Amino acid sequence: MCAAQKLTAAELHKACAPSDVPFETTATAAGTDGVVGQARAVEALRFGIGLQRHGYNLFAIGPTGVGKQSVLAQVLEPEAARAPTPSDWVYVHDFANPQRPKALELPPGLGSRFARDMAAVVAELRVSLRAAFTSEEYRTRLRQLVERLKGREERALSEVQERAKSREVAVVKTDTGVAIAPIIDGEPSEPEKFEALPRERRQKLETELEAVGRELKEMLRTFHEWAHEHLDAVKALDAEIAKSVARRVLDGVRKTYAELKIVLAHLDEVEADVIDTADQFLQGDDESFESTLKNALRHDGAGQGPSFRRYLANLVVDNGGRRGAPLVWEDNPTMPALVGRIEHEQQFGALLTNFTLIKPGALHRALGGTLVLDALKVLQNPFAWEALKRTLKTGAITIESLGQLTGLLSTVSLEPVPIPLGRTKVVLVGERRLYYLLSALDPDVPELFKVLVDFEEDLARTPESQGLFANLLASVVKKEGLKPFDRGGVARVIDAAARNASDQAKLSVHMRSVVDLLHGADYWAQQAGAALVRAEHVQAALDAGRARASRVSERIQEALARKDLLIATEGAVVGQVNGLSVMQLGEHTFGHPTRITARVRLGHGAVLDIEREVKLGGPIHSKGVLILGGFLGARYAPGVPLSLEASLVFEQSYGGVEGDSASLAELCALVSALADLPVKQPLAVTGSINQLGEVQSVGGVNEKIEGFFDLCQARGLSGEQGVLIPKSNAKNLMLKREVVEAVEQGRFHVFCVEHADDALELLTGTPPGARGADGAFPPGGLNARVEARLLAMAEGAKQFAARPPAPRSPPG
User: Strand 678-680 relative to strand 572-574: parallel, antiparallel, unpaired?
Assistant: First the structure.
């Protein structure tokens, strides 16, 4: 008796009854704000965010569309709201090392205030310093210093002149300085008159001239010393005026930040610099072209620009008004977008920068909170991955110029002091294969992303989970502003979720597909003018979605109907079986039948996989074919070597073949050819086998059954057509309504098999038969026919080997 089991219509689709939905419509449903089906991921998220240790960043993995971003938001937003509010950060000028701006940490809210205060300081200094240095008091004191110097010089010159006059030498002030000349006849003489003097008289005057010249030289040296003293006095006056102004302006700021030593220390440096460089400050107010050019060319160290800029504060992290920690989503994670950048200004053909041109990145905005990044986008942006890893390794954000890093920009730049990450967490989001590939190739990944957040694709289908899922649907309907769904509509969406999971005992939590279905059903309800979305509207959305993506599958069905692709659905043929394949184009998956044929002849025990020989077969498919040889060798004629040569092929296959789900069909075709027993063509087969002949489950079973059903329906259902599937796949059946109805009416069948013998008996109508106590198969059985054929081949091979070689003809 055949052990194959014919499934009933009820076993082909596990429907959710409308009565199982815990509300009348989604409008009256309680809904749910929680996360459904992702308990493992939620626990991992809370663990990773809560554990403040180095390297405990998070990597969230799972298929696209399961709602990773939504779950992250639902979990991370409350966690961020409960976390302490992080500090503000500002960059200020470092007067000791201008190329390396300092970072000041301030309590939340004080960063923006400090930036405003320093801008006000600069504005007030500009006005107050100019007023102080143009005041009457300053001019009077400066005039006194000038007059003092002038008086000292005039007195000294007068004394020298008197002494020179007694020596008959005149000391005369000229436009170019001081000159001396001999006095002849009471007046300074010309050179001609001096040369006309007697020699003794001339020699005496020359001696006097030299003595006066030495005295003048000494006087000028004294004048130079007095000039230095005068400049020092002027500088002291300027410093006194600048100090009084700076202290008056800065003391008000000091009171605001009296508890912040780091700010007070910086204000002291500002005051000292104002005193030292007050003259530069005044020049900076000159609007002339000459002054502008001088200011553009005068920079402090690394091009900090005109002096007034260095007193400003550049706010890079502002948490004023924030409650809790930040949660930042960066959609364009380039290197500058992550760690910040240093901008440049073009002035008179030169690229210049200063600390006020430091711009923050996403890591700065997320300081003390959480930064969520798409892992693939980070990897696709040059230098971003390395910059992110370097930041996580060092625990600080280092702003680097991309031009300097690559050597493409040769100009003066800055090296800002890195800002510590503190409690900041980074969450990478990506697919599983990306995470596993990165973990295998980059040893930093397990070290820096210790917390794996693995999202589920489905959840167990129980009465409780169905109710929870229904409330989730109600929440989505309300959030999306859709028409209310009634019980039947919700039940049909739950059925669709089970179909997406390809399992009667599970529900898919691929939320993008669910939301898309809700949108489509709402559209068809609007088209029908219905107040509620019902089951027929959900079904219309499913049918419409399938139709939009079915161009290729319809072309294949058309080719089958026109017999461009040869598939028999009636009669019986030796060595020919209808296999079932599944194709995925984008997000649309569909099945279609494929003819598999086998041919055997005398040979050396090889099962030839034509697909592999022409490099169209993948390694898993080739493995499945090799298993057939192992099964044959172990089951039939164990005492003699296999002496057949068999060939297997997917007819009219013009692309790659991969997977072992056709190995059962290939075995049936091969055994049919060996036993010379025809296979029923109204039946199609899918399933994988092992060397023991046990039938194993395969994927895409729903699509495969529906693909063969569509062909049979197009040709007319005869009541003999059907599909053989592994028994272990019975729980995966969520077939469409047309198939279920045809099975219920007896016009189509779905059989479950556990062993290759079950499939062979159903396909050939001949019982395989098991070995008896004598070690032989029952006569007339399928297995007996196969073994007899293999033994005959072995005898033929023996006789062929014993035959003397044919004589060779002489050459020529």
Answer: antiparallel
